[in-house]
TrEMBL record:
Keyword Ribosomal protein: no
Protein name: Putative metal transporter
Location relative to the cell: Cell membrane
GO MF annotation: an example: zinc ion transmembrane transporter activity
Keywords: Cell membrane, Membrane, Transmembrane, Transmembrane helix, Zinc
Entry annotated with the keyword Transmembrane: yes
Xref: Pfam families: Zip
Amino acid sequence: MTEFSPIALGFLGSLAAGSLTAFGAVPVLFGRLPSQGTRDLSLGFAAGVMLAASFFSLIIPALDAAELQFDNEAAPAAIVCLAILLGMGAVALMNEKLPHEHFSVGREGPEAASLRRVWLFIIAITIHNFPEGLAVGVGFGSGGLKDGLPLAIGIGLQNAPEGLAVAVSLLGEGYSKRRAWGIAALTGLVEPIGGLLGAGIITFSQPLLPWGLAFAAGAMLYVISHEIIPETHRRGHQDKATLGLSIGFVLMLFLDVWLG
Ligand SMILES: [Zn+2]
């Protein structure tokens, strides 16, 4: 694999991971959907993978990278904490700026509100796909295949249920099968853009690395807590959602240690 530059690897790896979003949404084209409980379980799985990826693939490497830049212990921790909060704040601000009907609060309006809720979910998924791509790109850019591969696999795995969730919710709003699948596929294509940027930044500017990694972790943590977990609990399948989250979390932890 030496013939590929880190930037090309970062792009291809994040493109492959992002494409699994479209793959996961394929069942809507055939109208054979898994039950709501199974979908909540698989979206819970996605939340678990993302949670583990935030810590093991973003926050810990961010601390390691920051420790190379400073002699004392407080500065790396402070930088990573600040960057996490900035990442969370950035997504919160984006949510704030959008005309917003919240998931759990806004039930009053009929169809318009429900359509808006679905689109907010889609926007949140799209937004968090960017830091996911960034993470994959940074992985390949800093550590080559060894660091990039577990991330690409883990991120790819959790994209499939996300793609399905997006397509199914659009189907529920009356979108055609093809359009629902197409929009779901588009949300995943943000990932190679993030991947290219991530691999590029780390290749050209090492001091930015801890900031970028921790910012991406913060953005993902916000989406997990604010959109994905509430979505899996909305229809009374908390047990399945939590089971999915546990499986996703330990699987990503295992992948990261085993392949990383
Ligand atoms: Zn995700």
